[in-house]
Specification:
The structure holds 2 protein chains of 2 kinds. Helix content of chain A is 37%, strand content 25%. Chain A has 9 helices and 10 strands. Chain A has a 6-stranded mixed β-sheet, with helices on both faces. A 4-stranded antiparallel β-sheet of chain A has the order 2-1-4-5, with helices on one face. In chain A, a hairpin with a 2-residue loop joins strand 9 and strand 10. The mean pLDDT of chain A is 93. Chain B is built from 9 helices and no strands. Classes of the chains: A alpha/beta, B mainly alpha. At the A-B interface, helix 2, strand 6 and helix 3 of A face helix 6 and helix 7 of B.
Chain lengths: 243, 230
Protein backbone atom coordinates (compact mmCIF):
# COMPACT_ATOMS: atom_id res chain seq x y z
CA UNK A 1 0.00 0.00 0.00
CA UNK A 2 2.73 2.46 1.04
CA UNK A 3 6.28 1.89 -0.14
CA UNK A 4 9.15 4.12 0.91
CA UNK A 5 12.37 3.38 -0.94
CA UNK A 6 15.73 4.96 -0.11
CA UNK A 7 14.24 8.37 0.62
CA UNK A 8 16.60 11.27 1.27
CA UNK A 9 15.38 14.72 2.18
CA UNK A 10 17.21 17.93 2.97
CA UNK A 11 15.98 21.17 4.49
CA UNK A 12 18.15 23.80 2.89
CA UNK A 13 21.59 22.89 1.60
CA UNK A 14 23.04 21.35 4.76
CA UNK A 15 20.43 19.82 7.06
CA UNK A 16 19.48 16.30 6.11
CA UNK A 17 16.10 15.47 7.62
CA UNK A 18 15.74 11.95 6.22
CA UNK A 19 18.61 9.58 5.52
CA UNK A 20 18.04 6.65 3.20
CA UNK A 21 14.70 5.66 4.70
CA UNK A 22 13.17 2.43 3.43
CA UNK A 23 10.06 0.70 4.73
CA UNK A 24 6.59 -0.26 3.69
CA UNK A 25 3.09 -0.54 5.03
CA UNK A 26 0.98 -3.39 3.70
CA UNK A 27 -2.77 -3.23 3.21
CA UNK A 28 -4.56 -3.52 6.54
CA UNK A 29 -1.35 -3.08 8.47
CA UNK A 30 -0.91 -0.69 11.39
CA UNK A 31 2.58 0.74 11.66
CA UNK A 32 3.64 2.98 14.53
CA UNK A 33 6.55 5.36 14.00
CA UNK A 34 8.28 6.57 17.13
CA UNK A 35 11.49 8.25 18.11
CA UNK A 36 12.83 11.31 19.89
CA UNK A 37 11.74 14.77 18.70
CA UNK A 38 13.64 15.97 15.69
CA UNK A 39 14.20 12.42 14.51
CA UNK A 40 12.32 12.98 11.25
CA UNK A 41 9.23 10.89 11.96
CA UNK A 42 6.76 13.72 11.24
CA UNK A 43 8.74 14.67 8.17
CA UNK A 44 8.59 11.09 6.92
CA UNK A 45 4.83 10.81 7.27
CA UNK A 46 4.32 14.16 5.54
CA UNK A 47 6.37 12.92 2.62
CA UNK A 48 3.96 10.02 2.12
CA UNK A 49 1.23 12.32 0.77
CA UNK A 50 3.75 14.84 -0.56
CA UNK A 51 2.97 17.63 1.86
CA UNK A 52 6.77 17.70 2.04
CA UNK A 53 8.82 17.09 -1.11
CA UNK A 54 11.69 14.62 -1.18
CA UNK A 55 14.92 15.04 -3.10
CA UNK A 56 15.98 11.43 -3.59
CA UNK A 57 14.37 8.03 -3.58
CA UNK A 58 10.76 7.19 -4.25
CA UNK A 59 7.47 6.83 -2.43
CA UNK A 60 4.76 4.68 -3.94
CA UNK A 61 1.20 4.91 -2.74
CA UNK A 62 -1.24 2.28 -3.95
CA UNK A 63 0.92 1.74 -7.04
CA UNK A 64 1.27 5.44 -7.86
CA UNK A 65 4.61 7.17 -7.54
CA UNK A 66 4.09 10.16 -5.24
CA UNK A 67 7.22 12.08 -6.21
CA UNK A 68 6.57 11.89 -9.95
CA UNK A 69 5.90 15.37 -11.37
CA UNK A 70 3.19 13.86 -13.56
CA UNK A 71 1.20 12.54 -10.59
CA UNK A 72 -2.07 14.34 -9.91
CA UNK A 73 -1.32 15.08 -6.26
CA UNK A 74 -4.71 16.48 -5.19
CA UNK A 75 -6.40 13.39 -6.59
CA UNK A 76 -3.95 11.09 -4.84
CA UNK A 77 -4.15 12.96 -1.51
CA UNK A 78 -7.94 12.78 -1.58
CA UNK A 79 -7.59 9.00 -1.20
CA UNK A 80 -5.37 9.14 1.89
CA UNK A 81 -6.67 10.54 5.15
CA UNK A 82 -4.41 12.62 7.33
CA UNK A 83 -4.80 13.70 10.95
CA UNK A 84 -2.57 16.48 12.28
CA UNK A 85 -1.09 17.23 15.66
CA UNK A 86 -3.00 20.50 15.91
CA UNK A 87 -6.27 19.14 14.44
CA UNK A 88 -6.43 21.83 11.73
CA UNK A 89 -10.19 21.93 11.59
CA UNK A 90 -11.39 24.88 9.56
CA UNK A 91 -12.36 27.40 12.26
CA UNK A 92 -14.71 29.44 10.05
CA UNK A 93 -16.88 26.42 9.23
CA UNK A 94 -19.30 24.48 11.40
CA UNK A 95 -18.38 20.91 12.33
CA UNK A 96 -20.77 19.44 9.80
CA UNK A 97 -19.41 21.77 7.10
CA UNK A 98 -15.86 20.71 7.97
CA UNK A 99 -16.91 17.18 7.13
CA UNK A 100 -18.85 18.04 3.98
CA UNK A 101 -16.65 20.57 2.18
CA UNK A 102 -14.07 18.24 0.64
CA UNK A 103 -16.65 15.54 -0.03
CA UNK A 104 -18.57 17.98 -2.19
CA UNK A 105 -15.77 20.03 -3.74
CA UNK A 106 -13.19 17.28 -4.22
CA UNK A 107 -15.20 14.08 -4.62
CA UNK A 108 -18.19 15.80 -6.21
CA UNK A 109 -20.73 14.19 -3.92
CA UNK A 110 -24.16 15.76 -3.68
CA UNK A 111 -24.92 17.85 -0.62
CA UNK A 112 -27.41 15.29 0.71
CA UNK A 113 -24.99 12.44 0.21
CA UNK A 114 -22.19 14.34 1.97
CA UNK A 115 -24.48 15.31 4.84
CA UNK A 116 -25.61 11.73 5.34
CA UNK A 117 -22.03 10.48 5.37
CA UNK A 118 -20.95 13.28 7.74
CA UNK A 119 -23.82 12.58 10.15
CA UNK A 120 -22.98 8.88 10.21
CA UNK A 121 -19.30 9.54 10.96
CA UNK A 122 -20.04 12.15 13.61
CA UNK A 123 -22.29 9.63 15.27
CA UNK A 124 -19.51 7.09 15.10
CA UNK A 125 -17.06 9.37 16.95
CA UNK A 126 -19.82 10.31 19.39
CA UNK A 127 -20.17 13.96 18.41
CA UNK A 128 -23.44 14.11 16.51
CA UNK A 129 -24.92 16.66 18.92
CA UNK A 130 -22.11 19.10 18.11
CA UNK A 131 -22.73 19.09 14.34
CA UNK A 132 -23.74 22.74 14.19
CA UNK A 133 -21.07 24.13 16.49
CA UNK A 134 -17.84 25.78 15.46
CA UNK A 135 -14.51 24.03 16.16
CA UNK A 136 -13.52 26.57 18.84
CA UNK A 137 -16.54 25.51 20.91
CA UNK A 138 -15.21 21.95 21.24
CA UNK A 139 -12.50 20.54 23.48
CA UNK A 140 -9.19 19.40 22.00
CA UNK A 141 -10.14 15.75 22.16
CA UNK A 142 -13.47 16.41 20.48
CA UNK A 143 -11.77 18.46 17.76
CA UNK A 144 -9.34 15.67 17.05
CA UNK A 145 -12.20 13.17 16.79
CA UNK A 146 -13.88 15.50 14.32
CA UNK A 147 -10.61 15.66 12.38
CA UNK A 148 -10.54 11.87 12.19
CA UNK A 149 -14.17 11.82 11.03
CA UNK A 150 -13.35 14.47 8.42
CA UNK A 151 -10.57 12.31 7.02
CA UNK A 152 -12.76 9.19 7.07
CA UNK A 153 -15.51 11.02 5.17
CA UNK A 154 -13.31 10.79 2.08
CA UNK A 155 -13.38 6.96 2.25
CA UNK A 156 -9.59 6.78 2.40
CA UNK A 157 -7.59 3.69 1.45
CA UNK A 158 -5.14 4.49 4.27
CA UNK A 159 -4.85 6.88 7.20
CA UNK A 160 -1.81 8.88 8.28
CA UNK A 161 -1.65 10.18 11.85
CA UNK A 162 0.95 12.81 12.71
CA UNK A 163 1.24 12.87 16.52
CA UNK A 164 -2.55 12.94 16.94
CA UNK A 165 -2.47 13.11 20.73
CA UNK A 166 0.61 15.26 21.39
CA UNK A 167 -1.32 18.50 21.66
CA UNK A 168 -4.01 17.08 23.94
CA UNK A 169 -4.50 17.31 27.66
CA UNK A 170 -3.90 13.89 29.29
CA UNK A 171 -7.55 13.26 30.09
CA UNK A 172 -8.51 13.62 26.43
CA UNK A 173 -5.93 11.30 24.95
CA UNK A 174 -7.87 8.10 25.53
CA UNK A 175 -11.04 9.26 23.74
CA UNK A 176 -8.95 9.85 20.60
CA UNK A 177 -6.98 6.63 20.96
CA UNK A 178 -10.24 4.68 21.38
CA UNK A 179 -11.40 5.87 17.97
CA UNK A 180 -8.04 4.94 16.48
CA UNK A 181 -8.05 1.48 18.06
CA UNK A 182 -11.51 0.81 16.63
CA UNK A 183 -10.28 1.92 13.25
CA UNK A 184 -7.25 -0.37 13.44
CA UNK A 185 -9.40 -3.32 14.45
CA UNK A 186 -11.62 -2.74 11.43
CA UNK A 187 -8.61 -3.33 9.24
CA UNK A 188 -7.77 0.21 8.19
CA UNK A 189 -4.25 0.66 6.85
CA UNK A 190 -2.61 3.07 9.26
CA UNK A 191 0.71 4.82 9.66
CA UNK A 192 0.86 6.50 13.05
CA UNK A 193 3.52 8.81 14.41
CA UNK A 194 3.04 8.72 18.16
CA UNK A 195 4.65 8.37 21.54
CA UNK A 196 1.70 6.40 22.85
CA UNK A 197 3.37 3.05 23.45
CA UNK A 198 0.19 1.70 24.96
CA UNK A 199 -1.51 2.19 21.61
CA UNK A 200 1.47 0.65 19.81
CA UNK A 201 1.53 -2.42 22.02
CA UNK A 202 -2.22 -2.89 21.63
CA UNK A 203 -2.79 -2.61 17.88
CA UNK A 204 0.45 -2.04 15.96
CA UNK A 205 1.65 -4.80 13.71
CA UNK A 206 5.04 -3.19 13.34
CA UNK A 207 6.97 -0.46 15.10
CA UNK A 208 9.52 1.76 13.38
CA UNK A 209 12.03 3.59 15.52
CA UNK A 210 13.70 6.65 14.03
CA UNK A 211 16.61 8.74 15.21
CA UNK A 212 18.41 11.60 13.47
CA UNK A 213 16.61 11.06 10.19
CA UNK A 214 17.35 7.35 10.01
CA UNK A 215 15.14 4.33 10.43
CA UNK A 216 17.10 2.63 13.17
CA UNK A 217 14.71 -0.19 13.83
CA UNK A 218 11.81 -1.66 11.88
CA UNK A 219 10.44 -4.63 13.76
CA UNK A 220 7.32 -6.61 14.55
CA UNK A 221 5.60 -5.29 17.63
CA UNK A 222 6.44 -8.25 19.81
CA UNK A 223 10.08 -8.13 18.80
CA UNK A 224 10.30 -4.39 19.32
CA UNK A 225 8.91 -4.39 22.83
CA UNK A 226 10.45 -7.73 23.70
CA UNK A 227 14.00 -7.09 22.66
CA UNK A 228 14.79 -3.97 20.68
CA UNK A 229 18.10 -4.54 18.99
CA UNK A 230 19.58 -1.09 18.85
CA UNK A 231 20.99 0.79 21.82
CA UNK A 232 19.20 3.92 20.79
CA UNK A 233 15.80 2.23 20.71
CA UNK A 234 16.44 0.62 24.06
CA UNK A 235 17.41 3.96 25.57
CA UNK A 236 14.36 5.64 24.09
CA UNK A 237 12.01 2.96 25.37
CA UNK A 238 13.49 2.98 28.85
CA UNK A 239 13.03 6.74 28.98
CA UNK A 240 9.42 6.88 27.95
CA UNK A 241 8.33 3.73 29.74
CA UNK A 242 10.05 4.43 33.02
CA UNK A 243 7.24 6.58 34.40
CA UNK B 1 -20.19 85.65 14.43
CA UNK B 2 -22.69 83.69 12.38
CA UNK B 3 -24.99 86.71 11.95
CA UNK B 4 -24.15 87.26 8.30
CA UNK B 5 -24.27 83.62 7.46
CA UNK B 6 -27.06 82.16 5.39
CA UNK B 7 -27.57 78.57 6.39
CA UNK B 8 -30.74 78.38 4.34
CA UNK B 9 -28.51 77.68 1.33
CA UNK B 10 -28.07 74.18 2.70
CA UNK B 11 -31.81 73.56 2.84
CA UNK B 12 -32.29 74.92 -0.66
CA UNK B 13 -29.57 72.72 -2.18
CA UNK B 14 -30.26 69.65 -0.04
CA UNK B 15 -31.57 67.47 -2.87
CA UNK B 16 -28.67 68.28 -5.14
CA UNK B 17 -26.11 67.76 -2.39
CA UNK B 18 -27.37 64.41 -1.23
CA UNK B 19 -29.35 62.81 -4.07
CA UNK B 20 -26.73 63.69 -6.66
CA UNK B 21 -23.53 64.42 -4.76
CA UNK B 22 -23.63 61.93 -1.90
CA UNK B 23 -25.04 59.18 -4.10
CA UNK B 24 -22.07 59.60 -6.42
CA UNK B 25 -19.62 59.61 -3.52
CA UNK B 26 -21.08 56.52 -1.88
CA UNK B 27 -21.37 54.61 -5.16
CA UNK B 28 -17.76 55.41 -6.01
CA UNK B 29 -16.65 54.38 -2.50
CA UNK B 30 -18.55 51.09 -2.55
CA UNK B 31 -17.55 50.05 -6.06
CA UNK B 32 -13.99 51.28 -5.57
CA UNK B 33 -13.62 49.28 -2.36
CA UNK B 34 -15.16 46.16 -3.90
CA UNK B 35 -13.06 46.34 -7.06
CA UNK B 36 -9.97 47.28 -5.07
CA UNK B 37 -10.49 44.31 -2.77
CA UNK B 38 -10.88 41.84 -5.64
CA UNK B 39 -7.94 43.23 -7.64
CA UNK B 40 -5.91 43.71 -4.46
CA UNK B 41 -6.46 40.09 -3.44
CA UNK B 42 -5.20 39.02 -6.86
CA UNK B 43 -2.08 41.15 -6.38
CA UNK B 44 -1.55 39.69 -2.90
CA UNK B 45 -1.82 36.17 -4.33
CA UNK B 46 0.70 37.10 -7.02
CA UNK B 47 3.13 38.39 -4.40
CA UNK B 48 2.74 35.26 -2.28
CA UNK B 49 2.94 32.86 -5.22
CA UNK B 50 6.11 30.89 -5.72
CA UNK B 51 6.71 32.57 -9.08
CA UNK B 52 9.43 35.16 -8.59
CA UNK B 53 8.65 37.17 -11.71
CA UNK B 54 4.95 37.41 -10.86
CA UNK B 55 5.78 38.49 -7.32
CA UNK B 56 8.24 41.08 -8.59
CA UNK B 57 5.69 42.60 -10.95
CA UNK B 58 3.07 42.79 -8.20
CA UNK B 59 5.56 44.31 -5.78
CA UNK B 60 6.59 46.92 -8.32
CA UNK B 61 2.96 47.81 -8.93
CA UNK B 62 2.25 48.28 -5.24
CA UNK B 63 5.36 50.39 -4.73
CA UNK B 64 4.52 52.54 -7.75
CA UNK B 65 0.93 53.21 -6.67
CA UNK B 66 1.94 53.96 -3.12
CA UNK B 67 4.57 56.48 -4.14
CA UNK B 68 2.29 58.60 -6.32
CA UNK B 69 -0.09 61.27 -5.01
CA UNK B 70 -3.68 60.18 -5.60
CA UNK B 71 -4.59 63.45 -7.31
CA UNK B 72 -1.90 62.84 -9.87
CA UNK B 73 -3.17 59.33 -10.56
CA UNK B 74 -6.72 60.64 -10.97
CA UNK B 75 -5.56 63.22 -13.48
CA UNK B 76 -3.33 60.86 -15.25
CA UNK B 77 -5.95 58.21 -15.75
CA UNK B 78 -8.56 60.67 -16.89
CA UNK B 79 -6.35 61.72 -19.74
CA UNK B 80 -4.74 58.36 -20.35
CA UNK B 81 -7.66 55.89 -20.20
CA UNK B 82 -9.13 57.10 -23.56
CA UNK B 83 -5.81 56.43 -25.25
CA UNK B 84 -5.46 53.02 -23.63
CA UNK B 85 -8.99 52.27 -24.84
CA UNK B 86 -8.03 53.33 -28.33
CA UNK B 87 -4.93 51.17 -28.22
CA UNK B 88 -6.85 48.17 -26.92
CA UNK B 89 -9.75 48.38 -29.35
CA UNK B 90 -7.76 49.64 -32.30
CA UNK B 91 -10.18 52.53 -32.79
CA UNK B 92 -9.12 55.49 -34.87
CA UNK B 93 -9.80 58.02 -32.14
CA UNK B 94 -9.36 58.00 -28.38
CA UNK B 95 -12.26 56.15 -26.78
CA UNK B 96 -14.59 58.41 -24.85
CA UNK B 97 -14.79 57.35 -21.24
CA UNK B 98 -17.19 58.93 -18.81
CA UNK B 99 -15.80 60.75 -15.82
CA UNK B 100 -17.38 58.21 -13.46
CA UNK B 101 -15.83 55.23 -15.23
CA UNK B 102 -12.46 56.92 -15.32
CA UNK B 103 -12.65 57.70 -11.59
CA UNK B 104 -13.79 54.21 -10.76
CA UNK B 105 -10.92 52.62 -12.69
CA UNK B 106 -8.49 54.97 -10.94
CA UNK B 107 -9.74 54.21 -7.46
CA UNK B 108 -9.86 50.46 -8.04
CA UNK B 109 -6.27 50.45 -9.31
CA UNK B 110 -5.06 52.79 -6.58
CA UNK B 111 -6.87 51.16 -3.68
CA UNK B 112 -5.85 47.70 -4.87
CA UNK B 113 -2.29 48.55 -3.87
CA UNK B 114 -3.39 49.22 -0.30
CA UNK B 115 -5.94 46.39 -0.08
CA UNK B 116 -3.34 43.97 -1.44
CA UNK B 117 -1.01 44.71 1.46
CA UNK B 118 -3.85 44.19 3.94
CA UNK B 119 -4.88 40.91 2.32
CA UNK B 120 -1.25 39.80 2.18
CA UNK B 121 -0.96 40.30 5.92
CA UNK B 122 -4.29 38.49 6.35
CA UNK B 123 -3.20 35.49 4.29
CA UNK B 124 0.08 35.31 6.18
CA UNK B 125 -1.81 35.37 9.48
CA UNK B 126 -3.32 31.96 8.65
CA UNK B 127 -1.20 29.13 10.04
CA UNK B 128 0.48 26.86 7.50
CA UNK B 129 -1.46 23.92 8.88
CA UNK B 130 -4.69 25.19 7.35
CA UNK B 131 -3.66 24.98 3.68
CA UNK B 132 -1.83 21.74 4.56
CA UNK B 133 -5.07 20.27 5.91
CA UNK B 134 -6.89 21.44 2.79
CA UNK B 135 -4.24 19.83 0.58
CA UNK B 136 -4.38 16.62 2.59
CA UNK B 137 -8.12 16.46 1.83
CA UNK B 138 -7.33 16.63 -1.86
CA UNK B 139 -8.11 20.27 -2.48
CA UNK B 140 -6.21 22.04 -5.22
CA UNK B 141 -4.33 25.27 -4.54
CA UNK B 142 -7.20 27.39 -5.77
CA UNK B 143 -9.81 25.44 -3.78
CA UNK B 144 -7.69 25.77 -0.67
CA UNK B 145 -7.39 29.52 -1.22
CA UNK B 146 -11.05 29.99 -2.07
CA UNK B 147 -12.67 27.90 0.66
CA UNK B 148 -10.12 27.88 3.47
CA UNK B 149 -7.48 30.60 3.39
CA UNK B 150 -9.14 33.66 1.86
CA UNK B 151 -12.39 33.51 3.90
CA UNK B 152 -10.34 33.41 7.10
CA UNK B 153 -7.92 36.08 5.91
CA UNK B 154 -10.85 38.31 4.95
CA UNK B 155 -12.50 37.78 8.33
CA UNK B 156 -9.32 38.52 10.25
CA UNK B 157 -8.69 41.66 8.25
CA UNK B 158 -12.27 42.95 8.06
CA UNK B 159 -11.77 45.82 10.53
CA UNK B 160 -8.65 47.02 8.72
CA UNK B 161 -10.34 46.69 5.33
CA UNK B 162 -13.29 48.75 6.55
CA UNK B 163 -11.02 51.41 8.03
CA UNK B 164 -9.25 51.65 4.67
CA UNK B 165 -12.68 52.01 3.05
CA UNK B 166 -13.41 54.98 5.32
CA UNK B 167 -10.18 56.56 4.12
CA UNK B 168 -11.30 55.84 0.57
CA UNK B 169 -14.64 57.52 1.30
CA UNK B 170 -12.76 60.70 2.19
CA UNK B 171 -10.34 60.35 -0.71
CA UNK B 172 -13.12 60.20 -3.28
CA UNK B 173 -13.54 63.95 -2.73
CA UNK B 174 -10.37 64.38 -4.78
CA UNK B 175 -12.39 63.82 -7.94
CA UNK B 176 -13.22 67.54 -7.67
CA UNK B 177 -10.12 68.07 -9.84
CA UNK B 178 -12.15 66.65 -12.73
CA UNK B 179 -15.08 68.97 -11.88
CA UNK B 180 -17.26 66.01 -11.03
CA UNK B 181 -20.19 66.73 -8.72
CA UNK B 182 -19.46 64.27 -5.93
CA UNK B 183 -20.62 65.45 -2.52
CA UNK B 184 -17.79 67.93 -2.06
CA UNK B 185 -17.94 68.94 -5.72
CA UNK B 186 -21.68 69.61 -5.43
CA UNK B 187 -21.18 71.63 -2.25
CA UNK B 188 -18.41 73.54 -3.95
CA UNK B 189 -20.60 74.36 -6.94
CA UNK B 190 -23.44 75.63 -4.78
CA UNK B 191 -20.95 77.59 -2.67
CA UNK B 192 -19.57 79.40 -5.68
CA UNK B 193 -22.92 79.94 -7.34
CA UNK B 194 -24.48 81.49 -4.23
CA UNK B 195 -21.30 83.02 -2.82
CA UNK B 196 -21.69 81.01 0.37
CA UNK B 197 -18.26 79.43 0.62
CA UNK B 198 -17.89 79.31 4.39
CA UNK B 199 -21.35 77.88 5.04
CA UNK B 200 -21.08 75.15 2.42
CA UNK B 201 -17.55 74.06 3.25
CA UNK B 202 -18.41 74.04 6.93
CA UNK B 203 -21.45 71.91 6.24
CA UNK B 204 -19.48 69.56 3.98
CA UNK B 205 -16.85 69.13 6.70
CA UNK B 206 -19.53 68.30 9.27
CA UNK B 207 -21.12 65.72 6.98
CA UNK B 208 -17.79 63.99 6.22
CA UNK B 209 -16.92 64.08 9.90
CA UNK B 210 -20.26 62.63 10.98
CA UNK B 211 -20.26 59.80 8.47
CA UNK B 212 -16.61 58.84 9.04
CA UNK B 213 -17.00 58.98 12.80
CA UNK B 214 -20.14 56.89 12.74
CA UNK B 215 -18.50 54.34 10.45
CA UNK B 216 -15.36 54.16 12.62
CA UNK B 217 -17.56 53.56 15.64
CA UNK B 218 -19.24 50.73 13.74
CA UNK B 219 -15.87 49.19 12.91
CA UNK B 220 -14.85 49.29 16.58
CA UNK B 221 -18.07 47.59 17.59
CA UNK B 222 -17.48 44.93 14.94
CA UNK B 223 -13.90 44.42 16.12
CA UNK B 224 -15.07 43.85 19.67
CA UNK B 225 -17.62 41.31 18.48
CA UNK B 226 -15.12 39.44 16.34
CA UNK B 227 -12.59 39.19 19.17
CA UNK B 228 -15.22 37.61 21.40
CA UNK B 229 -16.13 34.98 18.81
CA UNK B 230 -12.47 34.00 18.45
Amino acid sequence: MIEINHVNKWYGPSFQALKDCTTKVAKGEVVVVCGPSGSGKSTLIKCVNALEPIQEGEIILDGIKVNDPKTDLPKLRARVGMVFQHFELFPHLRIIENLCLAQEKVLGRSHDEAMAKAAKLLDRVGLKVHANKYPAELSGGQQQRVAIARALAMDPIAMLFDEPTSALDPEMISEVLDVMVDLAREGMTMMVVTHEMGFASKVAHRVIFMDQGEIVEDALRTDFFGSPRSDRAQKFLSKILSH
Amino acid sequence: MFANFDFDVIRRSFGYLFLDGMTFTLTLTALGALGGLIFGTMIALMRLSGYKLLGRIAGLYVDLMRSLPLVLVIFWFYFLVPYIGQWLTGASRPVRVGAFTSCLVTFILFEAAYFSEIMRAGIQSISKGQPAAASALGMTYSQSMRYIVLPQAFRNMLPVLLTQTIVLFQDTSLVYVLSIPDFLGAASKVAQRDGRLVEMYLFAAIVYFAISCFASYGVRRLQARISIVR
